[in-house]
Design brief:
alpha/beta, GMP Synthetase, Chain A, domain 3, globular, 500 residues, 2 domains, 7-stranded mixed sheet, Rossmann fold, 8-stranded mixed sheet
């Protein structure tokens, strides 16, 4: 009897490369990892990574985490992040990714919304105690049963995963590998508020394919990922792209330009995946002489409305692919032509690669009746973005919607017929990868005291930057911390905004 075709999972892709080349390099840590986390940088082959994944997976099973339960992960861009995600999938768990800049209140809300059974974190990241943050958030989440951590000086009650990696793997359970099963949960902020966004394996792989095929990443490439991985785009651009090309994944914890350049040259990286503004900055400064091995650069735009007005790409030895990000809803890519300028993006179905006839359809771009950009396709989680049921109409069936409204204002150019993205969603601000409702600014400003000012200004690098004025700067930072802001977020506000 013929067995039905089963779509692959991330672990299936890893196992394929493992069987073919077990001793090939798989994972490379940031060179400055000792400063970031206190760990020494690690280099793992596929066989070594598989042993570590087995050990973590067995520990999750032995700890009593049932199949299909949720495990939350808040880790920097290091080898431990990749190993933990793949180990969770091997144990049949669903990964919820938690951004590093989140407040304790947001961590607790995410853990409660997803009924997470466990959380994995790092002892310290850039001097901030994430182990304490995780322990406090876990205390507010009734469903949490286990708190795991990497690093030294873990608080009492947190199990050390470094000790797990140091001993032989235990016994794991057999898990049916099916790409239709849930793989991850990321979190978005929309006009309706905080929203968990679940995705199956095939949706995450579709995002990786859309990038790798459009950018023409070769099999066996060495990929440098310099984009925070704690989102759909972050996972698709690092984990999925790496597993699809079957090469080596080098990780960089954003951002130290000199360290990034050193890593690219030391590892002879073929591909760089980074925020688009950083990529364009590198391309402006004699990229061919400084990083001669690069052949593909993928620039990720958190503010896709800025792509059309961006500078030309002037590094002829390496191509640039613009990837438009729309929160956690989805993405699409467009490789720049010989003139180095962004290409026109037409509405309707788009393939990967975009210009190749007969290529697989990566998604569909449309203009909604509200004048905003809509997305649909295999990577787009339509159900997660379903509009709320109108009050008083809970028994009335709503018309089905087969697309996600991203909220980005858009129009059709009359001359070319291309989609023009003109503005981000109203009421939502973003500082780096941290998204929040603009109404939150009023509460933050109120905490600063009488006569204080706090506002969000457009910023080409981070989307927005917070600018403020307060009579007592020390009191201002203290007030933001009392509100529950992650210490790294308060530092980011101060660094980007000067006085505050």
């Amino acid at each position: 009897m013929n067995q039905p075709a089963v779509s692959p999972t991330l672990d299936t892709l890893f196992q394929r490369t493992l069987m073919r080349q077990p001793h090939a390099p798989a994972l490379l840590d940031p060179l400055n990892k000792s400063r970031i986390t206190g760990h020494q940088p690690r280099r793992l082959t596929y066989a070594e990574a598989d042993t570590a994944i087995d050990a973590l997976s067995a520990h999750f099973v032995e700890s009593g985490l049932p199949a299909n339960s949720v495990i939350a992960i808040q880790l920097p861009s290091t080898v431990e992040f990749v190993l933990t995600v793949l180990a969770a999938h091997r144990a049949g768990l669903v990964v919820a990714v938690l951004p590093l800049l989140w407040r304790q209140a947001e961590l607790a809300a995410a853990l409660n919304r997803t009924a997470a059974r466990a959380i994995v974190t790092m002892s310290k990241v850039d001097g901030v105690s994430y182990s304490d943050l995780a322990m406090h958030a876990a205390a507010e989440a009734f469903s949490i049963r286990h708190v795991f951590g990497f690093g030294a000086d873990l608080p009492e009650g947190m199990a050390s995963l470094d000790e797990v990696l140091a001993r032989p793997p235990g016994t794991t359970r057999t898990v049916i590998q099916d790409g239709r099963k849930a793989a991850m949960i990321s979190f978005d902020v929309t006009a309706e508020g905080f929203r968990p966004v679940p995705r199956p394996h095939f949706s995450l792989i579709a995002g990786g394919l859309a990038m790798s095929l459009e950018a023409d990443i070769q099999q066996g490439a060495t990929v440098m990922a310099a984009f925070t991985p704690m989102s759909f785009a972050g996972l698709a651009s690092s984990l999925a792209v790496w597993l699809l090309c079957g090469g080596t994944l080098a990780l960089h914890h954003p951002f130290e330009s000199e360290v990034l350049e050193q890593q690219i040259n030391e590892h002879a990286c073929d591909v760089l995946i980074a925020p688009a503004q950083l990529a364009l900055r590198l391309g402006d400064s004699n990229l061919a002489a400084r990083m001669p091995t690069l052949r593909n650069v993928i620039g990720l735009w958190r503010a896709p409305e800025q792509v059309a007005a961006s500078e030309a790409w002037i590094a002829p030895h390496a191509s640039l692919t613009d990837v438009y990000l729309f929160g956690e809803a989805g993405l699409f890519g467009a490789r720049r032509g010989d003139n180095g300028m962004p290409v026109a993006v037409m509405p309707g179905p788009h393939g990967a690669p975009r210009e190749q006839s007969g290529s697989s359809i990566a998604g569909d771009i449309l203009l909604t009746p509200k004048g905003t950009l809509g997305l649909r396709g295999p990577m787009v989680p339509i159900a997660a973005y379903a509009p709320p049921q109108p009050v008083g109409e809970t028994l009335t069936a709503q018309p089905p919607r087969d697309y996600v409204d991203t909220g980005f204002a858009a129009r059709i150019d009359r001359a070319s017929g291309a989609i023009c993205i003109t503005a981000p969603p109203s009421g939502i601000m973003a500082v780096g990868g941290y998204r929040f409702l603009s109404n939150d600014l009023q509460e933050w400003a109120r905490r600063l005291g009488q006569g204080a000012l706090l506002t969000a200004l457009p910023d080409r690098l981070s989307g927005h930057r917070l600018a403020g004025r307060a009579q007592d700067n020390a009191r201002a930072r203290e007030a933001l911390s009392e509100l529950g802001l992650n210490p790294l977020m308060v530092e980011a506000f101060r660094d980007r905004s000067g006085p505050i």
